[in-house]
Amino acid sequence: MRVVQVTKPSGDLELIERPIPEPGRGQVRIKVEACGICHSDVMVKEGFWPGLQYPRVPGHEIAGRVDAVGPDVAQWKPGQRVGVGWHGGHCFICDSCRRGDFIVCRNEKITALSFDGGYAEYMTAPAEAVAAIPEGLSSAEAAPLFCAGITTYNALRHAGAMPGDLVAVLGIGGLGHLGIQYARQMGFRTVAIGRGPDKEDFTRKLGAHEYVDTNAGPAAAALQKLGGARVILATAPDSRAISALVDGLGSNGKLLVIGASQEPLGISPNQILGQRLAIQGWASGTAKDSEDTLQFSVLTGVRPMIERYPLEKAAEGYERMMSGKARFRVVLTMG
């Protein structure tokens, strides 16, 4: 099979041939049809994940079909349409797992970090990390929903907002263009926050009821004029922009951070005490959460906007994603 691997931190994305892997006990082998290129793939490419072993195949937005199953796998059969996301499995025995909270498993496996990912024609994954893909989604459409989709959808549905509440989405990129769609389809009064007046028409086509241009003035003040946000979904990895939005929350509001940034947030206790504000992070979800995301997307018509690249042009697709010019998710297809 053909795979694209990284052999060392900051190494090149190299197209090579490897033997097709055999699924072990409790594993599923997937014939990959599409794999999204996510900004988090930088952890493999640049070696930002502690203890990462090389060579490593990136990719955690995987869509394809079950090709074979290992011993003790009863829930999956060859031919089923399936995918795998960021969450690559759990131990079942730590305190979090015993409570059923698998996404915060102390021994969580992460696809492409704990084992090889989906920049390949075949890959294996633990059976509990595999999710079914419903009819109505192509593999190229489904792939980004296993990370960008589940992260925005799962965060919003657990945010505590009710239909009709004001929900703002910061950022109109790979995560944000999905977050706006999901917020609208969940019945929220949806506000898109972006930079420049040229984005307004596009965000309204995605479903935003209101648009706030950060170039026109402080976004927090604009949100307060609209009544204050019940939830602000921060998809842009910009700590300064995220911090500036706290004052746009209404009472009992929540700042929900899903855009990963290395810089600390600049928020004082006094900003959150008086109105009982909350700040929460949210990362991805389990295979069942992925299934919920995909089913909701089919039901409501939410789709990622994608640019396709063949596997052999993975390096070109990765650079397109890193440049910030992709509109909005880059997806590798396997011929």
Walk me through this protein's architecture.
This protein folds into two domains: 193 residues, Medium-chain alcohol dehydrogenases, catalytic domain (Quinone Oxidoreductase, Chain A, domain 1); 123 residues, NAD(P)-binding Rossmann-like Domain (Rossmann fold), CATH 3.40.50. It is built from ten helices and 15 strands. The relative contact order is 0.16.
Fraction in beta strands: 15-25%
Count of spatially separate domains: 2
Largest sheet: 7 strands, mixed
Count of distinct strands? 15
Weakly predicted, low-confidence segments: none
Kindly state the percentage of residues in helix: 25-40%
Determine the CATH topology of the largest domain: Quinone Oxidoreductase, Chain A, domain 1
Topology summary:
Elements: E1 2-5, E2 14-17, E3 27-37, H1 42-46, E4 62-69, E5 81-84, H2 95-98, E6 122-126, E7 130-132, H3 139-157, E8 166-170, H4 176-185, E9 189-194, H5 200-206, E10 210-213, H6 219-225, E11 229-234, H7 239-243, E12 249-257, H8 269-273, E13 278-281, H9 287-300, E14 306-310, H10 314-323, E15 329-333
Parallel strand pairs: 8-9, 8-11, 9-10, 11-12, 12-13, 14-15
Antiparallel strand pairs: 1-2, 3-4, 3-6, 3-15, 4-5, 5-7
Please give a quick description of this structure:
The chain is α/β, with parallel strands linked by helices. The protein has two domains: 2-146 and 286-333, Medium-chain alcohol dehydrogenases, catalytic domain (Quinone Oxidoreductase, Chain A, domain 1, Alpha-Beta Complex); 159-281, NAD(P)-binding Rossmann-like Domain (Rossmann fold).
